[in-house]
Amino acid sequence: MRLRLYLFAILAALLVAPAGASDPQHPTLSPAQALKRLMDGNERYVQHKELHPDMSIERRRQIDQEGQHPYAVILGCADSRVPPELIFDEGLGDLFVIRDAGNVADDDVLGSIEYAVEHLGVQLVMVLGHEKCGAVSAALKSDKAPGHMQKMIDSILPAIKEARGLPGDQVHNCVVANARHVAFQIKTSEPILRLAVETNRIQVVAANYHLSTGQVEILDGLKPDKTTPAVLSTTQHAAGAVQK
Ligand SMILES: [Zn+2]
Fold first, then answer.
1. Could you list the residue range(s) of the whole structural domain that residue 206 is in?
2. Any idea what the CATH number is for the domain that residue 108 is in?
């Protein structure tokens, strides 16, 4: 009898726990607050003043026991020079990262974003292109590629068409057009993501990473909420402190 009561209590606790319960490291950030946290981290990275948060043994244990509550989705390029956790100075459990060559959004990627939005409660999605992107350059040179790379090229071609004829550097123009195009694709993806955007549950931003400076430039959409103080103090950040 006592065992049955105990099991019932566990089951009740699991059912009552909200799906998107927040992480004490970043308690339920609005999209603008999430963007500010990202850009603050990028600024530390640019200045080479990284705090390397959420990398402690305590943090590892915390996310093992409490699950993951990332505050942003980053859809970035697989390029080895653009690792999101490093360029945003973040740690374990902070970012839900999806990467492929050319930061394109096929069904697998859209499904992953839907999972982060519906099951993890993430409110900010960033599409992160970057300067000198090899995948974009390849699609610019030719609309044909061997093997499975053809699919990747096909996904980038709409942006190549959009950027054709613009003045300035062609690769840069196509990288920017591609990030914007993929952000639009996510915003209009039926039925889950379009509804989440229309009901203001999520914001989608397009951004571009500059390899030489380390700077992330926001191309479209939301601005970071500058009125909000930092969510964590520097000390907590640096120590990856666990709040109970
Ligand atoms: Zn790339």
1. 29-131+180-228
2. 3.40.1050.10
Strand partners, 99: 76
User: Would you state the pLDDT for residue 7?
Assistant: 41
Q: Give residue 11 CA to ligand 1 midpoint distance, Å.
A: 45
Q: In this structure, which amino acid lies at residue 184?
A: F
Query: Tell me, what amino acid is at 110?
Result: L
- How do strand 95-100 and strand 203-209 relate by DSSP bridges? unpaired
For residues 63-69, give the mean pLDDT. Answer: 96
Angle in degrees, 0-180, between the axes of helices 134-141 and 170-187, rounded to the nearest 10: 110
Element (H, E) at 97: strand 95-100
Residue 149 Cα to ligand 1 middle (Å): 13
Across the beta sheet with 72-77, what order do the strands follow? 95-100, 72-77, 124-130, 203-209, 216-220
Ligand 1 mean position, distance from CA 35 (Å): 22
